[in-house]
Amino acid sequence: MKYNTATLSNGLRVIHMPSSSPVVYCGYCIRAGSRNERPGEEGLAHFCEHATFKGTERRRSWNVLNCLESVGGDLNAFTTKEDTTYHAAVLKQDISRAIDILTDIVFHSTYPQGEIDKEVEVICDEIESYNDTPSELIYDEFENLVFDGHPLGHAILGTTTNVRGFDTKKAHEFTNRFYKPRNSVFFVYGDLSFKRIINKLCAVHQAKMVETAGPKARADDASPEKDKGLHTGCGGIQDIGNDAHDGDKHVWLDKLAGQKTIVRKGTHQAHVMVGSRAYDIYDRRRMALYLLNNMIGGPGMNTRLNLILREHHGLVYTVESSMVSYGDTGVWCTYFGCDPHDVDRCLRLVRRELDGFMQNPISPTRLNAAKKQLKGQIGVACDNRESFALDFGKSFLHYGWEKDINQLYKNIDELTADNLHEVANDIFNESRLTTLIYK
User: Fold this and answer.
1) Strand, coil or helix: what is 311?
2) CATH for 229-438, among 3.40.50.150, 3.10.28.10, 3.40.50.740, 3.30.830.10?
3) What CA–CA distances, in Å, run from 126 to 4, 85, 150, 156, 407?
4) Angle formed by the axes of helices 286-297 and 417-427, to 10°?
5) Pick the CATH number of 3-216 from 2.40.10.10, 1.10.4080.10, 3.30.830.10, 3.10.20.880
6) Please, is 303 exposed, middle or buried when counting C-beta atoms within 10 Å of its C-beta (0-12, 13-18, 19+)?
7) Where are the alpha helices (H) located in 298-335, listed in sequence order?
8) Torsion of CA 91, 20, 11, 57, to 10 degrees
9) Confidence band of 417 (pLDDT split at 50, 70, 90)
10) How far apart are CA 225 and CA 209, in angstroms?
11) Global confidence as pTM
């Protein structure tokens, strides 16, 4: 998998992945997420994402919305806990238009108060809609339990109280801190010459290219040496702070002790989450947990929890597990919804499955089947061009390079039953699992 990279004189890093498609996907990934918010700013990163579309020095909000729509393109954005991404999809002949509008809204938005006042109500409605969906809300509340006292724990959307207090000044203050070329990556996935992309970016940024490298492919699996000491995410006393994240607090957490929290929601169905802190994006054990998670409750209908809880016992409609890795920690969890009277029974069945992975290494046949399934899922997912583009843009922002899919397959193939057994005993240990129940 070949790609080109360059750095402009203003610090902007650029990555280009060639493709044969007439459609180009491109955008800015900015290291500015909800974890970067200071106390009282909860929800501000997401608010700025919305406000960025409301007008620039050259365009009113309607002109922003119409710029790519008028040529059949798409302009969108999303906020996560560690970054914000503004992205576009256009035919390749419209790449200059896409780069121009993306650069304009990201670096030259004016956040007009009149437009912001209207958008505040839109965001508050989004928050209320989210609060009305317990199967989604429980994920936020679970991370709030796991990362108690740290910005990673609060919801990306924030609260309606906070959002109603945001204005033009707040938007400028936050974006002036983080929306800088040196804190960003521009990614392009499409059938274009790298020179054309760089020339356009140099023009809109009034910058020069100072460093280039490409085409090249990542040849090894060595991640940055950040997975030592405090950054492993598990075991002993951990620091999940990071001086590079403005707004973060340095929070020292002992190995998370298990806790059980019941929240009375008055819903017909009970919603349950079980999990713990896990590995950061640089930890080499992350791949073993990734494979374990896929076997336990990944997207396949043949996962252990789906077979046991749904197919064999008919106790749930939805059951799944997931893992998220951040720059300096992570979280693994499993979710299911069931009749309130069946909660304890379901929890016992989940515990039995986790114990099974902890007690004995899995057989070679089972391990090979799991590897084959995961590699197939990754291959199918990579065929979604837009998702692939967004993924390699974020990968370049956080890792500094793009992971080659063949290297990823190699890393999966190298996993052993002992690797999985070790990780299972670390992550699934009952003494460290947190349980959150909505009833």
Assistant:
1) helix
2) 3.30.830.10
3) 38, 19, 24, 12, 40
4) 80
5) 3.30.830.10
6) buried
7) 304-305
8) 0
9) very high
10) 28
11) 0.89
